Amino acid sequence: TGDRIASGSRNNIVRLWDVDTGECVHILQGHSGWVNSVVYSPKGDRIASGSFDSTVRVWDVNTGECVHTLQGHSSAVWSVVYSPKGDRIASGSEDSTVRLWDADTGECVHTLQGHSGTVDDVVYSPKGDRIASGSFDDTVRLWDVDTGECVHTFQGHSNVVNSIAYSPKGDRIASGSSDSTVRLWDVDTGEC
Q: Which domain of life is it from (predicted)?
């Protein structure tokens, strides 16, 4: 939130750190597997964490309490992200799916299926109407948030897609891969 940093680790714990003092201000315990991903909500009052225990946990930043445990993935959660409005959470998993969750209720809204390998990165478009996912299947997929349908599959990498990012205008997606390339994709045409 500007004055605190969240970190996840192999000891199954999320920690909140004071930026000025370097002190740990909260230890968030509850996961039973490594914590792979942590993200603040847009308002900064919640943190979502994804873990090898196949769950996403939502934490209250002020109290350190777990507000929701999001269950549904059948394998490790590699990536979590809040929507720009903070009303949804997306999670990418080793089970090859992306799940969309209601951030307030913890209910699964959509399960996005189409990848054939671990989904190791997910990102919302700036408007929040699309999600891009990168996978061990060497592809990037673009999903419609409302329908859960795959809008585009971006193919061209020859190895795992490790990282993806939207341009500020939302018209391009950059993808970084273990094939030692970065590709820039047009979201409307699917062209590289």
A: Eukaryota
Fold annotation for 35-186: Methylamine Dehydrogenase; Chain H (2.130.10)
Q: pTM for this one?
A: 0.94
Contact in structure between 24 and 16 (CB atoms under 8 Å): yes
What is the total residue count of the chain? 192
| Spans of all domains in the chain | 35-186
Q: What is the pLDDT of residues 58-101, one digit of tens each?
A: 999 999 999 999 999 999 999 999 999 999 999 999 999 999 99
Cβ–Cβ under 8 Å, residues 57 and 99 = no
Q: Is 191 helix (H, G, I), strand (E, B) or coil?
A: coil
The torsion region of residue 44 among left (phi > 0), alpha (psi -120 to 50) and beta comes to: left
